Amino acid sequence: MTVVLEVRDLKIGYGGVPLLDEIAFDVLRGQVFAILGGSGCGKSTLLRTLIGLQAPLAGRVHFRGIGTPEQAMSPPQFGVLFQSAALFGSWTLLQNVMLPLQKWTQLPQDAVREVALARLRLVGLELAAQKLPSEVSGGMRKRAGIARALALDPPILFLDEPSAGLDPVTAAELDELILTLARGLSVTIVLVTHELPSILKIADQCLMLDREAGGVIARGAPRDLAEHAADPRVLAFFRRQSSPRNQ
Amino acid sequence: MAPTGYSLTRDDGAERRVSLTGSVTLADGAALWQELRQALAGATAATIDLAGVARLDGGAAALLQAVRANWARGGRPFRFVGATGEVAHLLALYDSARHGAGDEPDPAPSSLLGDVGDFAHDTWRTTQAILAFLGDLVWSVGRAIRQPRTVHMGEFGLLVERAGADGLPIVMLINFLVGAILGLQGAIQLHRFGGDQFLASLVGLSVVRELGPLMTAILITGRSGAAYAAELGTMTVNEEIDALRTLGQDPQRFLVFPRVLAMVVVVPAMTIVGDFLGTLGGMAIAVGYLQQPAVVYVQVFQQWIDMLDIGTGLMKSIVFGIAIGLIACQRGLATRGGADGVGRSTTSAVVVVLFALVALDAAFTWVFSLLDW
User: Fold this and answer.
1) Is residue B198 packed enough to be buried (19+ CB in 10 Å), middle (13-18) or exposed (0-12)?
2) CB distance A115–B62 less than 8 Å?
3) Is the peptide bond before B148 cis (omega within 30 degrees of 0)?
4) In order of start, what are the domains of chain B with their CATH numbers?
5) Which residues contact B43 (CB under 8 A, 6 or more apart)?
6) How does pLDDT run along chain A (247 residues), one tens digit per residue?
């Protein structure tokens, strides 16, 4: 399988103060790659660094065949679903999805609308196309965010805690959608989450971060980590136990 | 037209057959959309052969399905043939018929009559809401007097500082300029009739009774009223107001009461400063333009303006302060939606407060004239 994203010797933090260090991993084409860890361990900071919204303190992020995250932004070679979905509140869901198509394609307006509607249909939101984000549920906002992230057919999707704040049924539906995207559209998916059912259901590979360790403490297939990890912090995470350092 | 990754050939005839080969992607979507429409124009039935397509992406699949859906609406036969593997899979994924859902109709276009009706309805609802809010506030004041500890006065000093001290320079400057402009206009007219000595009474009465309170209130509306609406609106959409309620705090007493009280303190205080600076602006014109000794201006001012004039202005400013605080907070707490809702409620707060200030000023002037004040 081809590597699409390379991360080497990455050091990230805020204001020059390192949070995580020596992060290195590869993401393969078509893989669902999960970045795990407890609250405040730096998962979202790592994601922001991967998508170029935050500069690393050291190291590099490289999109194979494209370059740095900044180079991959224009035109966008990846889509992002933010934790809050980050839809524009004064625009309908359809207008939100149409935005990247209007900016980055030469399609006439009617074709833009058709493609945007098709994306919304794909995530089951065609009938809510004319609604504002404030008029739909949290799960629908997340799905609309995915439709917008998918608008330009990016080869990679970054999802920041897609199931956070959703009920189990909606979260499971979102997991199904992510699997459909990965298997049906061959999109590589990098997601940040700490939702165990989602991790076990959809992730091919995962990388576990720990704030105290200041970096990666485990990597591998989620089932392997859940059953055979040597590190008690990893086992505690997968078995939903309190952290060993708190015992 | 720029070279595309695909090529399109067609067999002409009423039953049109279009063959696509190569890489069909969204990057070439504009050309594909146009060429397909041209190729299918005038046909009674269409077949699109995708056997030669090496690569199809989601966007192009969506476009092909959109073309098919448009044809289906016209009742004309349309089919895809030759699609295999990934191409067939993507076409199926973007098949609108598979989802069984039609396009939601666009909202009905607005009409002038409808817009007027909506405006009247919104105005009535807003007025009702503000009056209900006023009732709640009066009720809260009663509760606050009985239980003073339930009122959150911790940030009262900060509110007064932000609305008062921080806004003082602009209030001073604007009132001085208004007094000077009024003075200059008045001086030109009075000079024609030899009435230079009356400039102080003209400027003094206008500023102290009308312009001082009104201009100061307008400025405070722009600064603090808008800020209150935006602040409370953001708190509302972030569910902070709901959180307050769940913590057993009444938003009226926790947030609204201190802000309205701050306005009741700040607006009259700033009005006194504004009156002084406005009068000073008029004096600058009297001295600079009419060559009138400053002492004459002051004497005439003392002769014509009494405490009742200043008192009526201050009475107005207290009511203006209540109106600014009340309406701005009500509009903020009535915010719905997200960031755009905050913008709308802030705009609404400023517009409604300005309207209320002018209406109240007119009512005061009428009542004072009846009372011969």
Assistant:
1) middle
2) yes
3) no
4) 6-99 (3.30.750.24), 119-371 (no CATH)
5) B13, B14, B15, B16, B76
6) 799 999 999 999 887 788 999 999 999 999 999 999 888 888 888 998 999 888 999 999 999 888 999 888 878 899 999 888 888 877 899 999 998 898 889 999 999 999 999 999 988 898 999 998 888 988 899 999 999 999 999 999 999 988 877 788 888 888 888 888 888 788 999 999 888 888 888 999 999 999 888 999 999 999 898 888 888 888 888 877 666 555 5
CA distance B161 to chain A (A): 33
What is residue A42's DSSP assignment?
S
With CB atoms and an 8 Å threshold, state whether B29 touches A106. Answer: yes
* Core vs surface per residue A184-221: b (16+ CB within 10 A) or e: bbebbbbbbbbbeebbbbbbebbbbbbeebbbbbbbee
Distance to chain B for A231, nearest Cα, Å: 39
Nearest by CB to B338, from A127, A133, A153: name it: A133
Stretch (H or E) spanning A1: none
Pairing of strands A156-160, A188-192: parallel
Of A90, A115, A121, the CB nearest to B63: A115
What would the DSSP string read from start to end of B65-116? HHHHHHHHHTT--EEEES--HHHHHHHHHT-HHHHT-PPPPPPPPP-HHHHH
Hey, are the CB atoms on A111 and B33 less than 8 Å from each other?
yes
Is residue A23 a contact partner of residue A12, using CB atoms and an 8 Å limit? yes
Could you tell me where the beta strands, DSSP code E, fall in chain B?
6-11, 15-24, 45-56, 78-81
CA distance B55 to chain A (A): 12
Closest CA to A195 of A20, A38, A25, A32: A38
Answer for the pair A100, A106: CB distance below 8 angstroms, yes or no: no
Enter the tokens of residue A109.
Answer: 């307006």
Instruction: For chain A, give the number of residues.
Output: 247
Q: Is the overall model pTM greater than 0.80, yes or no? A: no
| CA pair distance B127, B130, nearest whole angstrom | 5
Cα dihedral A195, A200, A204, A210 sign: positive
Mutate to test the interface with A, among B23, B28, B32, B33 (most CBs of A within 10 A): B33
